Amino acid sequence: MSITVNGIEELKKLAGSDLGTSEWIEVTQERINTFADATGDHQWIHVDPEKAAAGPFGAPIAHGYLTLSLFIPLFTELLDVQGVTTKVNYGLNKVRFPAPVKAGSRIRLVGRLAEVEEVPGGVQIAVDGTIEIEGGSKPAAVLQSLSRFYA
User: Fold this and answer.
1) 18: which strand partners?
2) Which strand (E) or helix (H) includes residue 3?
3) CB distance 58 to 45 below 8 Å
4) CA–CA separation, 77 and 75 (whole Å)
5) At 70, which CATH number?
6) Residue 74: which domain range?
7) For each of the chain's 151 residues, which pLDDT tens digit applies?
8) Total domains present in the chain
9) More exposed terminus of the chain, fewer Cβ within 10 Å: N or C?
């Protein structure tokens, strides 16, 4: 369920608010292989199911940066900012990967709008995100993402 705000002033009012939880998405072996092709990272732990089954996790796992990249589509399920001219991914603060995402697992995002700070021409938001693994005891990723919205 997405929260929609119209403009920067409405966005400022959400500072400190929980944004909710996205839907689950599956991290398939095909998605992992496509990411490996896009990045050139073909380490066996990601792309060789037979060898990975005998490895430390018992299955192929998603690249940490693949898990991190899925923050964007998951986040867009939580917050829709209308009435701005430009939306920019500004970067990340702390990022950790406490647990691997095995091929075939499902993940979702739990988000909180930690702060909204004015910058020239707009605002910068900090979103605290936890990417959960369905049935997992630890999250796949814990991060703080920075985005900028310009009027």
Assistant:
1) 112
2) strand 3-6
3) no
4) 5
5) 3.10.129.10
6) 3-150
7) 689 999 999 999 999 999 999 999 999 999 999 999 999 999 999 999 999 999 999 999 999 999 999 999 999 999 999 999 999 999 999 999 999 999 999 999 999 999 999 999 999 999 999 999 999 999 999 999 999 999 9
8) 1
9) N
